[in-house]
Specification:
5-stranded mixed barrel, 2 domains, globular, alpha+beta
Length: 226
């Protein structure tokens, strides 16, 4: 009888242990540590210390690689989350198998913070949240983040992707390093080599030359761009 009782207790204990180990991925919530940043709206969370889960932040969209501010948006997401404990409200999966979710670091809603900082657009196809839209409008008015770029450079990521898809594979691809203003990504590395604020902004936003924005405020070469 005592042996049966011990066996029963052991089985119950193992079940409880298994359930507690899975607790971080139950009830529509993931809990873990951010171990990778793919781009401005995608990161990898290590759940239970062993299971990497790629998460696409819902309701927002950040510039794609090749667009101005893409690297900066990725850097901002990294500053907010990398190597930090996060909670992800699981909202299903997308067609690429990524978990869709809203990410929190403590009480900070990272999705909303990216919009507030001007690092992300509200993804109109998937969100009509009035609070998110208000945060985006405020960032636009204040000229924060990507909203400090020239209007011609502020193309929404979904429009940019659509434009890229619609281009004929047979058509010659434009050289994105040579915009209408005539600048190109060459071998310049320092503010002393820049001829104007416009050129410095081009090198920061299009060529992703981070050495000319030492304080990481999104404004390069302060002596030129006062």
């Amino acid at each position: 009888m005592r042996k049966h009782s011990f066996t029963h207790t052991l089985i119950v204990g193992l079940i409880v242990l298994l359930l507690s180990g899975c607790g971080a991925i139950m009830s529509g919530t993931l809990i873990g540590k951010v171990v990778g940043i793919t781009d401005g709206d995608t990161l990898t969370v290590l759940v239970n210390g062993r299971e990497p889960v790629k998460v696409r932040l819902v309701e927002i969209d950040t510039p794609e690689r090749g667009q101005p501010f893409a690297f900066r948006a990725k850097q901002i997401l990294s500053n907010l989350t990398f190597r930090k404990a996060v909670r992800v409200l699981d909202d299903g999966q997308d067609r690429y198998g990524r978990t869709l979710g809203r990410v929190y670091v403590g009480d900070l809603d990272v999705n909303r913070e990216l919009v507030r900082l001007g690092a992300a657009w509200v993804y109109r196809e998937y969100s009509d949240d009035p609070e998110l839209l208000a945060l985006e409008a405020d960032a636009r008015t204040a000229g924060r983040g990507l909203w400090a770029l020239p209007e011609t450079e502020r193309v929404s990521p979904w429009e940019w992707r659509s434009s890229r898809r619609s281009q004929s594979s047979a058509a010659p691809q434009p050289d994105l390093s040579i915009p209408a203003d005539g600048f190109r990504c060459e071998q310049k590395r320092y503010c002393r080599q820049m001829r104007s604020c416009a050129e410095a902004k081009f090198y920061l936003n299009r060529c992703e030359l981070r050495t000319i924005d030492e304080d990481r405020d999104g404004v390069p070469c302060e002596a030129l761009c006062r």
